Amino acid sequence: MVNEIIPVVILGAGGYAGVLQEILALRPDLHLLGCIDKAFGLSERSTDEHYSLPILGDDDTLAQIQAENPDLHAVLGLGPDLMEVRVRLMQVLDLQQIPPVTAIHPRAIVSRTAQLGDGAVVAAGAIVGPGVRVGRHCVINIGASVEHDAVLGSNVYLGQGARVASYADLRDNVVIEMGASINSRVQIGTGARVTGGAFVNTDVPDHAVVVGVPARVVRYLPS
């Protein structure tokens, strides 16, 4: 029996899409069609002759691409500054019943007892420990680590080199920026953001932005 090749589209066309392109290109079971760029026609990548991944159109073309590729899958290619857009596109994928692709770089380490939700991305050098639960559409970026029995909700974004200690609980739509650290058993509330280099050793409320060592709340994001 010959395995079918799955067509995949990346939602987003920025620099993070290039990272995804590298990971997905290593999967022989996938055929990467290209990107969908909300700023199609305005983005420099829409006309950049040196950009190696085709930009297929804007968000409105997704339905057409799905009609042409009935087994279409997708992955979110948007960074942490576009969390609201990521949430919206998650809803679009669910509504159009387009399955997400889980992408794990071969140089990542993922424990056999870890659980990864659909659409999760684990980049090169990342470590996901035993008993970790990772929700749908999470990103564990280059060199980030999640220690044993930690829990990540859906759409959690860990920046490069971020550290999440054992039994930490990160709720939905959380951003942990580059080099930040979350101590053991700390809870990070829904929609909260931990800025780069911060060290968090107490619970963070929903939608709070925290900075510093130790981290403190400086403001709240709209809920």
Word description of this protein:
This protein is an alpha/beta fold. It has two domains: 6-95, Rossmann fold, CATH 3.40.50.20; 103-213, Hexapeptide repeat proteins (UDP N-Acetylglucosamine Acyltransferase, domain 1), CATH 2.160.10.10. The protein has three helices and 23 strands. Strands 5-8-11-14-17-20-22-23 form an eight-stranded mixed sheet, covered by helices on one side. Strands 6-9-12-15-18-21 form a six-stranded parallel sheet, with no helix packed on it. Helix 1 links the parallel strand 1 (6-11) and strand 2 (30-36). It is globular.
Task: Provide a short characterization of the protein structure.
The protein has 223 residues and is α/β, with parallel strands linked by helices. The protein has helices at 15-24, 62-68, 83-95, and strands at 6-11, 30-36, 55-57, 73-76, 103-104, 109-110, 115-116, 121-122, 127-128, 133-134, 139-140, 145-146, 151-152, 157-158, 163-164, 169-170, 175-176, 181-182, 187-188, 193-194, 199-200, 208-211, 216-220.
Strand and helix map with partners:
Blueprint: E1 6-11, H1 15-24, E2 30-36, E3 55-57, H2 62-68, E4 73-76, H3 83-95, E5 103-104, E6 109-110, E7 115-116, E8 121-122, E9 127-128, E10 133-134, E11 139-140, E12 145-146, E13 151-152, E14 157-158, E15 163-164, E16 169-170, E17 175-176, E18 181-182, E19 187-188, E20 193-194, E21 199-200, E22 208-211, E23 216-220
Parallel strand pairs: 1-2, 1-4, 2-3, 5-8, 6-9, 7-10, 8-11, 9-12, 10-13, 11-14, 12-15, 13-16, 14-17, 15-18, 16-19, 17-20, 18-21, 20-22
Antiparallel strand pairs: 22-23
